[in-house]
Amino acid sequence: MNSAIVSLTAIAVMLSAPAYAQQAPAPAVAAVPVADLVKRVDIPYEQFVLANGLRVIVHTDRKAPIVGVAVWYNVGSKHEPKGKTGFAHLFEHLMFNGSENSPGEFFEPLKEVGATDYNGTTNADRTNYFQTVPRAALDRALFLESDRMGYLLGAVTQGKLDEQRGVVQNEKRQGDNQPYGLLRYKITEGLFPEGHPYRHSTIGSMADLDAASLDDVKNWFRQYYGPNNAVLVLAGDIDAKTAKPLVEKYFGKIARGPSVADPKVTVPTLDAAKSEVMKDRVAVTRIYRMWAVPGMREADSTVLDASIGVLGGLASSRLDNILVKQEKLAVGVGAFNQALAQAGMVLISADVRPGVDAAKVGERLDAIIADYLKNGPTAEELERYKTRTASARIRGLESVGGFGGKAVTLASGALYMNDPGYYKTQLAQLAGVTPEQARAVTAKWLSRPAYSLTIEPGAREAYAEAATAPKAKPAAAADEVVKGTRGALPDVAEVKDIDFPAISRAKLSNGIELVYAQRDAVPVTQAVISFDAGVSSDVPTALGTERMALALLEEGTKTRNSIQIAEAQERLGAGIGADSSADRASISMFTPSPNLAGSLELMADIARNPAFPQAEIERVRNQTLAQIAQIRSNPAGLAQMAMPTLIYGKDSPYAKTAALAGDPAAVRTLTRDDLVNYYKAWIRPEKAKIFVVSDRPLAEVQAAFEAKFGDWKGEGAPGTKDFSAKPQQAAPKILLIDRPDSPQSLILAGQMTPVDPFGDPIALGTATEVLGGDFLSRINMNLREDKAWSYGARGGISRLEHAVPFVVSAPVQADKTGPAIAEIQKELRAYLGDKGITKVEFDRSVISAIRRMAGQYETAGAVLGAMQSNDFMRRGDDYQEQLAKKYRALTIPQVDAAARAALDPSKLVWVVVGDAAKVRGQLDSLGLPVEVVKPEAVGPGAGGN
Question: Is 53 left (phi over 0), alpha (psi -120 to 50) or beta?
Fold first, then answer.
């Protein structure tokens, strides 16, 4: 539920041609034309309209027995009058608090049926609600959605309003508490004048949220939540013939609401260039150049998507190549066109490399933009952007629902453009964008006065807090709701157990194992080369070696430099990257299958032939040091740096995870030899295993990998890990990291458990899910839905290869830090005492776990993740096929026994990141020693904790 000083002549010479024109030719990659990819983007649909005005769109996809259900309402923050900011989003929250015929949390009956991807969101233009459910549960999903569309007001009470007001205000605090967290307000206030519908933020102001009355929110519903102001999309194992009587049954009797007209919106032009400087708790100065531009309903918007993408949205963008890779004035850049329905915003940014004059970077940024407005992009640059976009669209075709699946595509087209198939129109427009058109449109809009904003390190202005504290939960009598008249929730028919794809195993000539599954819903191949390495393999005396070595794999090979690697990926529509977890490193690839050969050749070049060029080492070193500084300015980063040594002890290899991006002292002194030696020891075939999910058959995939990796041989001795030192948890205490002026505190609690990492996870997993694993968990329901102290709290275990820690995370408003810790302790003690899992909780968790698997493993990416997890945890390849049987055999005593054997709240160590002046006094009554430290004293290279 959840915004260099050089001569002008030199600049003109440098920017008159793209940066890559001066480079040695790179090996060619075979890529299909973008037109071929665009043709593959297809979402057939049928639509009908009920008598009450509800527009219904149906797309049939039989690959899995699931249906994505999405309801989009034509109401967003642009509809909010003065004094009512944040109402659209606040009401979205209230829609999850139960309706007349389904009182209680909306998520509860959804979880019972095995729903996945269920949530709601609000932006400036719309509010949407979505869930993916087993086909057998479609009736229930339609009942629930129709009940909150037509039968909500009797269930909206003052108590629920007060509760969700507090939750939303904590959501606002959580966002505002981040570095650059106040940027979202400055952007729209800087670009749009007073009274403009897009001027204020979706989250709203604390004062307006405070002022929201029960009558206000009920009138909001009456005005905007009629069926004639909504679009319902059903995508999946359903067809229009079957859907129509179902939709008529559940939605047909809902009365039509008032007609809703979009507010009048103009695209404003500033009278003159405007420049502002804002201080914030940031480690890196960020420079912005911004313009208001037309929205998606205007043809220029799609042209700007492409043109601004070439300027700063690609890995090989003009800004990245010049400011980051070549001149090394910035450690990061970005540019994109944020297209809203009726207006848009072009945002261009540069993160200044520490030590470089920000004014100098600003001048250089302006010069690059000016040249781009004069000369525009090349045809080849546009083609790469188009290919990347079409590839992303193909990937999105795999999901029927969720945040970005086919239901979203159809609903957004219908709501914004009155055309569910608008995605085809937009892709055709994109494919037709020419260099001259891109230049002309970009110059038309970006030659106007810009809003320039610089965010630099410094003390923030005073925070505008809420005037009222969340009210206590009202008495039951005051919180009564109207009793519904529609009867009980529809029953759920039998949900068949999952049919997980068959897993095949093969070996390359050099012994690398290939683990394969076929999924043919979309023409896509996803692969991961997993190495037995990870952060635990980092050099203990030079933490950050592992991260920098992996980061440099994409920054140059023996035949390609970093720009050529980025360009090759874009031509292919591929994504290739390196990453790591505590126990494993990985090189991953996503590609449209027609480009598999070219993408695999590039992946092999990156994996096998990294050059570690000295110039790129220096650039990545500077970027890494900036990243470390940015992590230290972030509450979550500070907490994650502090916790590992407390739960693992300083001698465990897992203590290295506290370094995150690295120890700055070590990163400053790393040599090329250090990085090459790490690569040779750990990124090698003996430590590798390949996982692939593809629409292509195993024989073809195996032959392709054999050709590129079958003759790979390691060089020198392989690396080894030493886990002889068992985790040694610190004595219970509270480590308070003082972060002044924080409106929220981030609470982290951790305990090392005695659990066998490879033991059966089901009983303990069920217990921790009930405690903190999802929205309905006891900890979240306490801190969020009962107390309204938090936007959300979670807790659970992580199964590493040599340790199983239990961690709870809870961001809470600053004045409730101590009480929130007490509540977490209370929930854990109660569960482990005489209030173990209830039958309702047990049945809900077990049934949900069985029924949700079809949705859980809908995509190739989810199957790929399961394959890796099964292999890592030493499970059979048919593990998912056996899960339903295991859950049906589970008992309540087994769940409680697993929790009591693993968890001990008296052993918890606590990390709190917050304002010590506000928080310190709240902690003294908790019976634990409290240690207060400054952020600079946390983590490797800072003396530890």
Answer: left
pLDDT for residue 10:
25
**What percent of the chain has a predicted confidence (pLDDT) above 70?**
96
pLDDT tens digits along 619-667: 999 999 999 999 999 999 999 999 999 999 999 999 999 999 999 999 9
Is the pLDDT at 8 greater than 50? The verdict is no
Q: What is the DSSP letter of 179?
A: T
**Number of Cβ atoms within 10 Å of the Cβ of 6:** 14
Query: Which runs of E-coded beta strand occur in 172-273?
Result: 230-236
Cα(207)–Cα(858) distance, integer angstroms: 43
DSSP assigned state of 906: G
Q: How far apart (Å, rounded) are the C-alpha atoms in residues 887 and 495?
A: 14
**Strand ranges for 353-494 from DSSP E:** 451-457
**What is the rounded radius of gyration, in angstroms, for the C-alpha atoms of the chain?**
28
How would residue 22 be classed by pLDDT, with cut points 50, 70 and 90?
Answer: very low
Quote the pLDDT of residue 703.
98
**How far apart, in whole angstroms, are the C-alpha atoms of residue 706 and residue 508?**
6
Place of tokens 């005051």: 478
Amino acid residing at 341: A
Question: 726 φ, ψ to 5°?
Answer: -75, 155
The secondary structure of residue 240, as a DSSP letter, is: H
Write the CA distances from 200 to 85, 449, 839, 899, integer angstroms: 7, 21, 46, 47
Integer Cα distance of 231 and 239 in angstroms? 17
H helical segments located in 196-346: 206-211, 214-224, 240-251, 299-308, 318-319
For residue 410, give every residue at least 6 positions away whose Cβ sits within 8 Å of its Cβ, in sequence order, or none.
Answer: 43, 45, 57, 59, 233, 235, 420, 421
Sign of CA dihedral 685, 686, 691, 695: positive
In tens, the pLDDT along 125-142 reads: 999 999 999 999 999 999
Closest CA to 346 of 387, 403, 389, 305: 305
- Which pLDDT value is given to residue 474? 46
How many other C-beta atoms are found inside a 10 Å radius of the C-beta of residue 888? Answer: 11
- Of all helices (H) and strands (E), which one includes residue 370? helix 358-375
d(C-alpha 760, C-alpha 852), whole Å:
20
886 neighbors 909 (Cβ within 8 angstroms): no
Beta bridge partners of 280: 457
Q: What is the pLDDT of residues 33-46, one digit of tens each?
A: 888 888 889 999 99
Q: What tokens does 496 get?
A: 């068949």
Q: In this structure, what are the phi and psi dihedrals at residue 350, rounded to the nearest 5 degrees?
A: -145, 130
| DSSP-derived secondary structure letter, 64 | S
pLDDT band of 906, cuts 50, 70, 90: very high
C-beta of residue 418 within 8 angstroms of C-beta of residue 412: no
DSSP 8-state assignment for residue 326: I
The pair of three-digit structure tokens given for residue 197, joined into one six-digit string? 């519908």
Round to whole Å and give the CA distance between 238 and 141.
14
pLDDT at 24: 59
Measuring CA to CA, which residue among 114, 106, 118, 67 is closest to residue 887? 114
77's tokens: 């923050």
Read off the tokens for 75.
Answer: 């109401």
Q: Per-residue DSSP letters for 654-722?
A: GGGGGGTT--HHHHHH--HHHHHHHHHHHSSGGGEEEEEEESS-HHHHHHHHHHHHTT----SPPP---
Cβ pair 422, 416 in contact under 8 A = yes
Q: Looking at the predicted structure, is the pLDDT value of residue 701 above 90?
A: yes
Between CA 867 and CA 879 the distance in angstroms is 9
This prediction has a pTM of 0.94
H or E element at residue 795: strand 794-797
Average pLDDT, the chain: 94
* Contact of 546 with 533, CB cutoff 8 Å: yes
State residue 940's pLDDT score.
Answer: 87
pLDDT, one tens digit per residue, over 368-389 is 999 999 999 999 999 999 999 9
